């Protein structure tokens, strides 16, 4: 390239000057950082794959760029910058036409400007609304990277491998630490060394979860939700591959189920049970065996693992447990919150305004209403309805193959996330986790589209 020589000279002079005035370790870190940025700018797909590994392994490792943000979100921004650069250099094909579901998501993003402005004016609280709004939009924008960078089956398979590798690293870190300490707070000191901020505050929050497993996702319920989203994809991918890919998928699936049980997330446990029953109704292979194995595993865990006994008992108990009473209080207070903020509270603060007596809401759909008002919730429901019309199975039984495993795995994982959303809100505005949600939705959409256009046989499960 004509620019190669002058750029090489500029960087050589720059690093030489830094080596003269800065400590050696700082220079090495800067050199690695600059090399990484240049590599991502040249190969945006590599940046997106790196995001897949990092967002599932260390989602909240942070960096300060004038304000503190996660490295995962910074990677999304860098990938979009790379797409722009490569587009200017004519190294990328024209942008594909937006699918119907993608147009609904774009409408949701545009509408969010109104609740953002209203919230900035009406909500009297400390918070950086503009930064929070831009970060939310950035997380949603991952959906539009799928047709630009993951436009081939090979690229989509590489993305799935990246997601599973990151999840495997997270599980191999979290499970041994929990088995050693038997406390959610046991992992906080490790996260501090891995770039997490506010470790002392995090440790205080996790002290109340003395018998539940945490992870780099920090909260046990968020960990359970992440497992509910990713475990179906891991199992579908692993069962239909051979060699090390099969080992990767099955390992993540089995360890993910174990981690989900140890988090004690009732919403995630119920969602996995619901989607397994749905898969059985679609006569998906292995589902019956998985249900039987799941029942056997639950029986064994109930005999040897008291924390799971308590959590499962709480699911069916009529007693007013702490988390149950909080959720009931949230639902009772929800109409007052909507009456006070009919267009939502925007992005300045999270739901549950301090000093107003208004509580948050542990529901994915109602949290959209809390933040964006009724139109925002209806737009999100329209997105989900459009997605389901595009990807839902049309034929039974579904024969799971290597060709359709990513479509089915992402679809089932998203269904599990939506069911868990009836009990928790973390797939609505939780940074990084929602980026994975919309990434999975994009994979599901475009795999379904590929299967449809490739003259699918009746067993493919995709609308002809």
What does this structure look like?
The protein is mainly alpha-helical. It is built from 21 helices and two strands. Strands 1-2 form a two-stranded antiparallel ribbon. β1 and β2 (68-70) form a beta hairpin. It is globular, with a radius of gyration of 23 Å. 42% of the residues are buried. It is a multi-pass membrane protein. Pfam families: Wzy_C (PF04932). It comes from Pseudomonas lundensis.
Q: What is the helix tally?
A: 21
**Main sheet strand line-up:** 1-2
Radius of gyration using CA atoms only: 23 Å
What letter string, H or E per element, gives the SSE order?
Answer: HHHEEHHHHHHHHHHHHHHHHHH
Report the count of strand segments: 2
| Mean pLDDT over the residues | 84
Regions with pLDDT < 50 over 5+ consecutive residues?
Answer: 455-464
Largest β sheet strand count, sense and barrel closure: 2 strands, antiparallel
Shape: globular
Strand content: under 5%
Q: Which structural class matches the secondary elements?
A: mainly alpha
| Share in helix | over 70%
N/C terminus separation = 47 Å
Organism: Pseudomonas lundensis
InterPro entries: O-antigen_ligase-rel_domated, WaaL-like
Subcellular location: Membrane
Protein name: O-antigen ligase-related domain-containing protein
Topology summary:
Layout: H1 4-21, H2 24-42, H3 44-57, E1 62-64, E2 68-70, H4 71-88, H5 100-111, H6 113-122, H7 129-140, H8 142-149, H9 153-181, H10 188-193, H11 199-206, H12 220-239, H13 243-263, H14 266-281, H15 287-304, H16 306-316, H17 322-340, H18 364-391, H19 405-420, H20 426-429, H21 433-453
Antiparallel strand pairs: 1-2
Helix pairs in contact: 2-3, 2-4, 3-4, 3-9, 5-18, 8-21, 9-12, 9-13, 12-13, 12-14, 12-19, 14-15, 14-19, 19-21
């Amino acid at each position: 390239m004509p620019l190669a020589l002058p750029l090489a000279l500029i960087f050589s002079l720059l690093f030489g000057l830094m080596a003269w005035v800065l400590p050696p370790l700082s220079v090495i870190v800067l050199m690695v950082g600059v090399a990484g940025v240049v590599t991502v700018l040249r190969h945006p797909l590599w940046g997106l794959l790196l995001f897949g590994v990092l967002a599932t392994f260390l989602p909240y490792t942070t960096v300060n760029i004038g304000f503190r943000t996660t490295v995962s979100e910074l990677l999304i921004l860098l990938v979009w910058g790379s797409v722009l650069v490569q587009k200017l250099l004519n190294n990328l094909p024209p942008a594909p036409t937006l699918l119907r579901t993608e147009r609904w998501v774009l409408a949701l993003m545009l509408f969010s400007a109104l609740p953002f402005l209203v919230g900035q004016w009406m909500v009297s609280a400390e918070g950086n609304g503009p930064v929070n709004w831009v970060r939310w939009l950035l997380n949603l924008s991952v959906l539009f990277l799928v047709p630009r960078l993951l436009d081939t089956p090979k690229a989509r398979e590489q993305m799935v491998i990246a997601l599973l590798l990151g999840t495997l690293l997270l599980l191999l870190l979290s499970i041994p630490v929990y088995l050693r300490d038997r406390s959610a707070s046991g992992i906080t000191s490790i996260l501090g060394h891995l770039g997490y901020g506010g470790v002392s505050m995090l440790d205080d929050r996790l002290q109340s979860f003395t018998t539940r497993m945490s992870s780099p996702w920090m909260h046990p319920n968020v960990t359970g939700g992440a497992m509910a989203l990713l475990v179906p994809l891991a199992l579908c991918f692993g069962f239909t591959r051979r060699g090390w890919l099969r080992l990767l998928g099955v390992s993540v699936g089995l360890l993910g189920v174990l981690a989900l049980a140890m988090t004690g997330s009732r919403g995630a446990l119920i969602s996995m049970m619901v989607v397994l029953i749905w898969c059985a109704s679609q006569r998906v292979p292995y589902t019956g065996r998985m249900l039987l194995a799941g029942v056997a595993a639950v029986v064994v865990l109930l005999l040897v693992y008291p924390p799971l006994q308590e959590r499962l008992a709480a699911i069916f108990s009529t007693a007013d447990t702490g988390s149950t009473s909080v959720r009931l209080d949230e639902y009772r207070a929800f109409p007052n919150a909507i009456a006070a903020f009919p267009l939502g509270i925007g992005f300045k603060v999270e739901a549950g305004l301090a000093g107003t007596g208004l509580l948050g809401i542990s529901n994915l759909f109602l949290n959209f209403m809390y933040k964006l008002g009724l139109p925002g919730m209806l737009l999100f429901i329209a997105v989900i309805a459009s997605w389901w019309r595009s990807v839902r199975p049309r034929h039974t039984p579904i024969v799971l193959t290597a060709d359709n495993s990513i479509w089915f795995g992402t679809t089932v994982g998203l269904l599990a996330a939506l069911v868990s959303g009836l009990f928790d809100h973390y797939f609505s505005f939780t940074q990084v986790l929602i980026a994975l949600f919309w990434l999975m939705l994009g994979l599901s959409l475009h795999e379904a589209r590929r299967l449809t256009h490739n003259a699918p046989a009746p067993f493919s499960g995709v609308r002809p």
